[in-house]
Amino acid sequence: MSNTDFVLAVEDLTVSFDGFKAIDSLNLYVDRGELRVVIGPNGAGKTTLLDLICGKTKASAGSIKFKNQEMTRLPEHMIVRAGIGRKFQTPSIYENLSVFKNLEVSYPRGRGVFGALGFKCDDAVKAKVDEVAGMIGLADRLDLEAGLLSHGQKQWLEIGMLLMQDPELLMLDEPIAGMSARERELTADLLNRICQNRSVIVIEHDMDFVARIAHKVTVMHQGKILAEGSMDKVQSDPKVIDVYLGH
Ligand code: ADP
Questions:
Q1: Are residues 43 and 158 in the same domain?
Q2: Residues 72 and 100 in one domain
Q3: Is residue 2 domain-shared with residue 78, that is, in the same domain?
Q4: Does residue 47 line the site of ligand 1, with CB under 6 A?
Q5: How far is the C-alpha of 79 from the C-alpha of 91, rounded, in Å?
Q6: Structural domain of residue 102, as residue ranges?
Q7: Does 50 contact ligand 1 (Cβ within 6 A)?
Q8: What does 67-123 look like in DSSP terms, one character per residue?
Q9: pLDDT at position 108, please?
Q10: Which UniProt keywords apply (predicted)?
Q11: pTM for this predicted structure
Q12: If you take atom 5 of ligand 1, which residue's CA is the nearest one?
């Protein structure tokens, strides 16, 4: 496969903070429809990598190509528009609005909550809300105030708000943090459904969950990739064992 066939191709990516290389000449290639999990000890550079891909942090060197288009120096909103969605750990939803409104205002046509609230909800938006609500398991909660949802449901709603924009690459930072066992199960199913026609990058610490969802695992350490491959392969890699056991 040539590098142009990947949905995401990160090459020689480097970012320095006061001379410290948080990401150091990193290469990462993600396939279409792939669910990639990034693991690694605290400080490995996982969050910084996602910050670079979504444009929150600007690279010192290297390139980030999405669908073969250069993203490296684009502003954050252009990267979102190109089809990259990012969810942070803490849900940022409109607690006082209904689930329906939260999804409706996330439809790209009505950017920003004030603009969108004045919008007449046309059939296309409603159909999209219904589709996404079904996908995230909240179809029977559309009229509920979002603040009344459970912690897990709020996380799914935020994923749904991203799905309203039809991203082709979705990046999630510890999506099951604080979830019950049942919610974790449902989140694994949801991620599985999402990557039927999208690519997903997840940062995760829970190894049972990683084993359950990952198509491929990338292990980071000190701003570099230490190992990459199936969960079985990286788990038995002596370099990975060393880093995790601190030998
Ligand atoms: P991880 O997500 O794997 O825990 P991070 O990406 O948060 O790691 O951090 C990687 C390293 O980069 C850490 O040493 C962190 O302190 C440093 N770092 C991250 N962001 C900044 C910043 N804005 N300024 C200075 N150092 C930073």
A1: no
A2: no
A3: yes
A4: yes
A5: 20
A6: 90-166
A7: no
A8: TTEE-TTS-HHHHHHHTEEEE-SS----TTSBHHHHHHTTSTTS-SHHHHHTS---H
A9: 83
A10: ATP-binding, Nucleotide-binding, Transport
A11: 0.92
A12: 45
